[in-house]
Amino acid sequence: MKKKGSKIEFSTLRDKELYRHFLTLLREGNFTVLRELYGRAAKMPASRFWVSELRAADVVSRMRRGREDMDRMKSARRAMFEEIRRRVDDFMSRNPGMTLIDAVTAVVNGDAPEFYISDDTARTIIYRVHRQARAMRRILRR
């Protein structure tokens, strides 16, 4: 399980990438309600899996040994770790002799099919980044 108070070290990069996707969707104008854009932005492909290599390696190792309790994870996180495990298993079968940490590092730093966050989490992140950007513009105008 995730340690209480832990935070990924690159959450700022993830947040900015998600916000850019949101702005792209907003500019396209193919929506009826603004609320639907949050989920659509979260389902867009991401530049990487937004989890640390060590955390992913720990969870994948536990999953492979049958020791990780996946029922206690939120569904989006569970789906992300299942996809990482599937890719790691495939990667290791194509590259015999590769260590688990090397395979996980290669997979986690590769493209991800989505952000693996809920619509509400996406909305919270987008609001926060938008407020920060607006505050920065106000400061720069002075």
Total number of beta strands: 0
Helix content: 55-70%
Number of helices: 6
> How far is the N terminus from the C terminus?
46 Å
Percent strand: under 5%
Q: How would you characterize the largest beta sheet?
A: none
Category by helix and strand content? mainly alpha
Order of helices and strands: HHHHHH
Compute the gyration radius: what is it?
Answer: 17 Å
Shape: elongated
Q: Which segments are poorly predicted (pLDDT under 50) over 5 or more consecutive residues?
A: none
What count of domains describes the coordinates? 2
Q: Whole-number average pLDDT?
A: 91
Give the topology.
Blueprint: H1 11-28, H2 34-42, H3 53-65, H4 75-94, H5 100-108, H6 119-141
Would you kindly provide a brief summary of this structure?
The chain is built from six helices and no strands.
Keywords:
mainly alpha; 142 residues; elongated
